[in-house]
Amino acid sequence: MQGMGGSLSNHNSLIVAAFHSALRHQIIVVALLLAVAIPAWAATVGAGRSLALAGGRRSGSLEHPARRLLRIGFGLLWILDGVLQVQSGMVLGMPTLVVQPAAVGSPGWVVRLVNDGLSVWNRHPVPAATAVVWIQVGIGVLLLVSPRGQLSQLAGVASVAWGVLVWVFGEAFGGIFGPGSSWLFGAPGAVLLYCGAGVLVALPERAWIGRQVGRVVLAVMGLFFLGMAVLQAWPGRGFWQGQTNPKAVAGSLTSMMQSMAQTPQPGALASLLHSFASFDAAHGWGVNLFVVAVLAFLGAAFLSGRPDLVRAGVVVAVVFCLAVWVVVQDLGFLGGVGTDPGSMIPMLLIIGAGYLGLVHQPVLAAAEMEDGAAVAAPVPGARPHQAPSGTPGLAHAGVTRALGVAAALGAFGVLLVGAVPMAFATVNTRTDAILAEGVNGQPQPSDSPAPAFSLVDQRGTPVSLSSFRGRTIALTFLDPVCTTDCPVIAQEFLQADTRLGAAATRKTAFIAIVANPIYRDVSFVQAFDRQERLDTTPNWYFLTGSLSQLTGEWNAYGVQVQTLDAGAMVAHSNNAFVIDADGRLRDSLAFDPGPDSATSASLATLLDQVMRAAMRT
Hints:
The protein has helices at 13-53, 65-84, 90-103, 108-123, 125-145, 149-170, 190-202, 212-233, 252-261, 267-282, 284-304, 307-327, 344-359, 392-427, 434-440, 485-500, 522-531, 547-556, 597-616, and strands at residues 368-370, 373-375, 444-449, 454-456, 462-464, 472-478, 508-514, 540-543, 561-563, 570-572, 575-579, 584-590. The protein has 617 residues and is α+β, with helices and mostly antiparallel strands. Among the domains are: 210-361, no CATH class; 434-616, 3-Layer(aba) Sandwich (Glutaredoxin). It has a six-stranded mixed β-sheet, sandwiched between helices. Strands 1-2 form a two-stranded antiparallel ribbon. Helix 1 (13-53) runs antiparallel to helix 14 (392-427), helix 7 (190-202) packs parallel to helix 13 and helix 16 (485-500) packs across helix 19 (597-616). The longest helix is centred in the first third of the chain and has 41 residues, at 13-53.
């Protein structure tokens, strides 16, 4: 029946259109900010080279290559992740297809924490979805345009802060508290690697002098791989069996690959996944033994700290991680709701940075630090640079710093384009009206006399449409013995009344007409009011009358009422009507509460907006 059983598809055209419209408006601001950041960054690079050639004391090329790898690599990854958030399925699919599945099987406190975090997204899907796009793009650009100094360290801190939020609320702690956690499937969460890279970028530049950072990074990765090897080898977790019996339950790895092969993707990649899934089903024990052995080797190689073993470990890690990225993680970002390329690429960047930190020492390794920037110490056997007379080098350095600040501020502005709306959404407890519109369609404007009615209210007092002249009316039809949609709609009417405020009580009326041909006595109306705590609301009216009177009102307002088999319940269309103070019908709204609490709460926001518009005109 029209108006009943509404649903909200992940590709709801109205909400997706609103999402893309918001992005188009915001990208104008972002383009202006990038028009400042990118040229300023390019000028900074050019100025730094000119200063170095001129023999100035400060050089723009002192960043350690390991740090540069992390900064540029993760800067590009953050931008890619932001771009992936533009996919149409993200605005509504993020909670149901990405976040909630990540928390499945986790302890109750993890699920509750994740759901609490999702409440912002569920109430404000469009602002939340656009905010994530620009926060991640902003962090990525900030990393790319800030090679050195405190602004570069700030980019690392921003990466850590946002990464922790995503790891907790977006990845449910990377699934480490759930069953089947495995390095193959991305444990302990790809974004945790982003956090680690952010910590390394945020280190003072002096920390990169020497090999200590490289040793620590490799040691941590070594311990991590050994831990993952133990977890992968642990009996009873489903990784040692494939599926030799067609009727048997597939092993965890086989199931994962079979599931990933169903993701929309190029046929060649799907075929590769199917083939490897079949191989694992037949040789699950051997595949898992190989995985455990490789993980254990990587752990031992990186813990050794010996350049030759570390080098061999890096080669093995590159080959193995890329293979897992393709045949197990399926590149990570396919299917329309992929949020990142998975854990393998960021892991390789961390490993690469550790290796470079261990074996690569720049010519300027003996530098001393001055005001947070490296100043080259004399290199044995090299001719010291002679600074030119006067102070053009210092002036040039000042210009370079100013350009660097301008580039970073432009990138930080992009981040704020997302962070500011997200902050407002977090403190706004009212669900956006667009959810109700997504389920029911937008209100249908009208300007015609409202059909008159003459009924009795919950007190038995005769009332008519004319008796409400001078008041703006919200009118709906409810079944007083309904236990599903009707109580929800009544509460949304009550919430809309609360939002309008006490000052509007005498100017508004919230009216329901009975939509049940059997249970229409005043006693049923009164019982419904008591149950829904409406009996103390002064501008609430629940009207009833004879069957012929009610039938006339149903027909006049186009409301369908049907008694189902054996009198089990009454089905009726859920509609609301807004009537202005002159008795004219202003808007008709389909008023189905929708599939969840977020869409039902959105009804109050929508009704509040429509009534305010009617009161203003």
